[in-house]
Amino acid sequence: MRLAPSLHRIGNDIVAAYLISTPDGVTVIDAGLPGHWSELIAELAAIGRTPAEVRGLILTHGDSDHIGVADRLHREYGVAVYLHPADASRAAGGPKPRSARQRMRLGATAGFLAYTAGKGGLRPRWIHETLPLHDGDTLALPGSPRIIGLPGHSPGSVAVHSAEVDAVFVGDGLTTRDVLTGATGPRPAPFTDDPSEAAASLDAVAATGARWVLPGHGAPWDRGSAAAVAAVRAANA
């Protein structure tokens, strides 16, 4: 799905990943679920690209619904996978903290679970070989992605800001569709390790001034990063 010149999405409002395409190649941000492989190949083909032209994959964090095609891209095409070290164990199948009790609505939760299962989410493809990234890094990849530390949802959560495409990719730093309740619009993401820390981290997202705010769950937001963060805080009030 084309969002803007050089900016594309695969998946849907339940689980999404993104591509930046430039003359230098493609950067993938997040890796969805294992079953998103065919969608990735199709989206690349639609823009005249192949997996061999993917220069790097950046994971915003290590949850299983964000790493789905990472290992395959790495093994079959030698794509470098970047991840904050604090989430490396999580992405490799290590233990996660127990989440607080979540608000749920039956239909939305069932839809999320069914979609995840249908895309291979019950058998995660863990990733064991990653390169470290840290707050403040600018990676030598298409789109010149700059890393913004975004701890809270997980210890190693990051956002990825590309001024070239006027977008900030936020993973689960915020959501525009709560997969457990179906509520839409910018709001805190469920299954967040430390909600207070996650809320504080959003200052850095607002400061990017990016037009596009692109979450791992929910519709793309094109009304600016400051407005998105203000909406999250209003929803959390």
UniProtKB/TrEMBL annotation:
InterPro entries: Metallo-B-lactamas, NDM-1-like, RibonucZ/Hydroxyglut_hydro. Signal peptide: none annotated. SMART domains: Lactamase_B (SM00849). Pfam families: Lactamase_B (PF00753). CDD domains: yflN-like_MBL-fold. Residues 14-217 form the Metallo-beta-lactamase domain. Gene3D superfamilies: Ribonuclease Z/Hydroxyacylglutathione hydrolase-like. PANTHER family: METALLO-BETA-LACTAMASE DOMAIN-CONTAINING, METALLO-BETA-LACTAMASE DOMAIN-CONTAINING PROTEIN. This is Metallo-beta-lactamase domain-containing protein. It comes from Mycetocola reblochoni REB411.
